[in-house]
Amino acid sequence: MPDGFAIRAATAADADIIDAIIRSAFAGTGHGYQGEAELVRMLEADGDALVSLVAEADGAIAGHVLFSRMDVEADGAAIPAAGLAPVSVTPGRQGQGIGGALIRAGLDELRAQGVAISFVLGHEAYYPRFGYSPDLGARFASPFAGPHFMAMMLDSNAPWPLGGRADYAPAFGRMG
Ligand SMILES: CC(C)(COP(=O)(O)OP(=O)(O)OC[C@H]1O[C@@H](n2cnc3c(N)ncnc32)[C@H](O)[C@@H]1OP(=O)(O)O)[C@@H](O)C(=O)NCCC(=O)NCCS
């Protein structure tokens, strides 16, 4: 973790600041997604947010990550699963390791909660460093299937399921 940063669980009082950080982070991406801030609010309202963390420096929030409950079947059985989305770091603080620290802390928290597998839809140059694999993602049928759809077993010793199905929480289907 970078010097001077602390990661903690988000609280209801952080909602407006998290909203602003997500909007500022995604405003610079140019990929046209405007719905991430609303997505976080919907996932929270639906009770589907499993892990929501903020990175704080000098009392100011500089980044946020959310993992939400997924509906996943692996080799014919339901397994506890979480999707990573979104992760945001305020533009002036990007590239300092905050996003990575938030993701690693979130994965540790998911392990503590007994979650077995995590998925992400994102850049294949970034997420494999945390253990996400496009090859594992490709074993799961999903509306998001493709090279950007990645998965990781949270216990790195666990065998990979041979196949299955992965569905994000309902709020993803309501994204604008
Ligand atoms: C993606 C994001 C959360 C990463 O946080 P960060 O604190 O800047 O990342 P870190 O400092 O931990 O890691 C920096 C690394 O991530 C890479 N990176 C950052 N954004 C990236 C992106 N969109 N695609 C690919 N790589 C990216 C950087 O090139 C850098 O790589 P390096 O370590 O090989 O030099 C942050 O840049 C951000 O908020 N971006 C805008 C929102 C977004 O695109 N979120 C991801 C989609 S859910």
Which short descriptors sum up this protein?
single chain, 176 residues, alpha+beta, Aminopeptidase, eight-stranded mixed beta sheet, 32% strand, binds coenzyme A
Percent strand:
25-35%
User: What is the CATH architecture assignment?
Assistant: 3-Layer(aba) Sandwich
> Any idea what the shape is?
globular
Distance between the termini: 34 Å
Indicate the CATH class: Alpha Beta
Low-confidence stretches: none
Share of helix, binned: 10-25%
CATH homologous superfamily descriptor: Gcn5-related N-acetyltransferase (GNAT)
**Overall number of structural domains:** 1
Ligand roster: coenzyme A
H/E topology pattern:
EHHEEEHEHEEE
What is the C-alpha radius of gyration, as a whole number of Å? Answer: 15 Å
Number of strands: 8
- Give the mean pLDDT: 93
What is the count of helical runs?
A: 4
CATH topology: Aminopeptidase
Structural class: alpha+beta
What does this entry look like structurally?
With 176 residues, the protein is an alpha+beta fold. The protein has a single domain (6-174), classed as Aminopeptidase, CATH 3.40.630.30. It has four helices and eight strands. It has helices at residues 15-27, 36-46, 98-112, 134-137, and strands at 6-9, 49-57, 60-74, 77-89, 117-121, 140-141, 149-153, 164-167. Strands 1, 2, 3, 4, 5, 6, 7 and 8 form an eight-stranded mixed beta sheet that branches. A hairpin with a 2-residue loop joins strand 2 (49-57) and strand 3 (60-74). Helix 1 packs antiparallel against helix 2 (36-46). The N and C termini lie far apart (34 Å). Residues 25-26, 29, 85-89, 94-100, 122-123, 125-126 line the site of coenzyme A (COA).
